[in-house]
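OP here, attaching both records as promised.
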Amino acid sequence: MNIITKLPGPLLVFLGACSLSFGGLIVKSFEGATLWQILFWRSLFFSLTVLTFLIISYRQKTFKAFKDSGLPGLIGGIILSFGFCGYVFAMYNTTVANTNFIISLQILFLAILGYFFFKRKNFCDYFNFNYSCYGRGIINGW
């Protein structure tokens, strides 16, 4: 797992944002496909990508990594699949802008929950929370 530790965090955040931003374009570009066809192909290529990453990271210990993840890994995978399906359902049934707006609000909720549950009181958290609220206001036209 040395590959992921050598990549800088901002690069990983950038790659994550790029993959999220193209999700709407990909889902909306399949005009003749049903929702379940889109989910199938997206899930297949996502699984192949994750498997490739795991093989590169763990090499011969890939299957051992699956086994070592145990029940928490299984539960996390099920929750991830529900989130994955919910994302595609939302893109299919509403606009891309609405879906991405709701997804971007999760950062605000995480900051609020972190404040209440973990008693995090950091200046950077307050600054980022206020800056994020300001950005949401610009998007909404407030």
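Record two, same layout:
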Amino acid sequence: MKNARFVVAAAFALLVMLTPVFGQSAGIRVDVPFKFVVGNTSLAVGEYKVSVMKPGMLQFQRTDGRGTASFMTNYTGGGPYQDRRERLIFHTYGNHFFLSQVWIDDVNPGHELHVSAAELEYARTAHQTQTVLVAEGQPHK
């Protein structure tokens, strides 16, 4: 009985210690040369560090320290033949940019962001194109 408790306690301790390893990604840096919208939040022109905070949640942090925002996502793609370049994919309507997907190399599936009511309105009235920004990976420490 004592042996079983010890094994369970050791397994739990190992799980707790490894959780931070699986929780956050090293992230990517990307310079966004235009204002853009993520969900219901408008973000300014600038350089951002984008990282996975936990499964299904991305964090955008301005590298100049002017702000941080977190967003819930769904997984998309993945698999052995998926394009694994680190990148942000925007839906573009004229000069309005809505972040659609984020791909981070150390995380196999991509992250798809929820479509906002504002984007749906633009989609009804304007032609959609796609803008892709290739990101710079973070050096692994």
